[in-house]
Amino acid sequence: MTGAPRRIWGLMYRHLALYRRSWPRLLELTYWPVLGMCIWGFTATFLSRRLGAGAAVTVSALLGGVLLWEVCLRSQMGVTISFLEELWSRNLGHVFVSPLRPWELVAALISMSVIRMLVGVAPAIALAWGFYAFNVFALGPVLVLFFVNLMIMGWSVALAVVSMILRHGSGAEPLAWSVLFGLAPFSAVFYPINVLPAAVRPIALALPSAHVFEGMRGILLDGVIRWDHLSWAFGLNAIWLGVATMIFARQFHQARVRGALLSIGE
User: How confident is the model at residue 22 (pLDDT cuts 50, 70, 90)?
Assistant: First the structure.
């Protein structure tokens, strides 16, 4: 392994070594997805008992929304937390003294986010299957397309957050935990878009995640794959990722000119 792949792997290995030596870090990856599944799983169980057998499909849609939202959230957190760990360790300046290029840093962060997402979501999927009899894989092969779209959206939001941190310093770090939660009400995770007030529906329709969840409900509630929503999700993700990449490239360049890569986080 030489060149760019070696540099990307080197940065990834640094983060992987931290998890290998620290079981609390591994626990943190699975803690929130499992906790969320427990809370919503018990809520779904209560609803199914109150509403009877007819609520089974609605409960499945609820649990499916929980799992798929964790995919998006963990993908975004995987990038931002890995980047913040470089800041907290005062390592960002040292990294770019090496031949590492910005796109290689992004590739390493995205690769780590995929690993973090899979490790975090897998126990929640097993819990949903074992405790609540919900098998997310029953959605079929289209589940892969749902995962891909939600991961891309998470990466787009993460690049925008990283850009804000490069621009405003440690004061912008809380955005790593708050931005995606702010989009959750418009993402139609647990309810269809048409229940939103008419004034905010355009916001929902501009989010790739809203189209993914509409597509998920199309399968669970109607047994139909909504290719129109999937097409919109991919198209919007292309725009989101393109804009986020341009913002990141600009802010990274300005941070390098200002010398902020050495001073950021202090």
Answer: confident
Amino acid found at 241:
L
Buried b (16+ CB within 10 A) or exposed e, 106-128: bbbbbbbbbbbbebbbeebbebb
Is the pLDDT at 145 greater than 90? The verdict is yes
Residue with the two structure tokens 């993914």: 212
Range of the domain at 203: 3-263
Q: How many domains would you assign to the chain?
A: 1
> Hey, how many other C-beta atoms are within 10 angstroms of the C-beta on 93?
16
User: 239-257: b or e for each residue (b if 16 or more CB lie within 10 Å)?
Assistant: ebbeebbebbeebbeebee
Q: How far apart are the first and last CA of the chain?
A: 35
Whole-number Å distance between alpha carbons of 37 and 19 = 23
Residue-wise pLDDT for 153-210, tens only, equals: 999 999 999 999 988 887 888 888 889 999 999 999 999 999 999 999 999 999 999 9
C-beta of residue 264 within 8 angstroms of C-beta of residue 163: no
* Percentage of the chain modeled with pLDDT above 90: 53
Is-above-0.85 flag for pTM? yes
Pairwise CA distance, residues 266 & 110, whole Å: 25
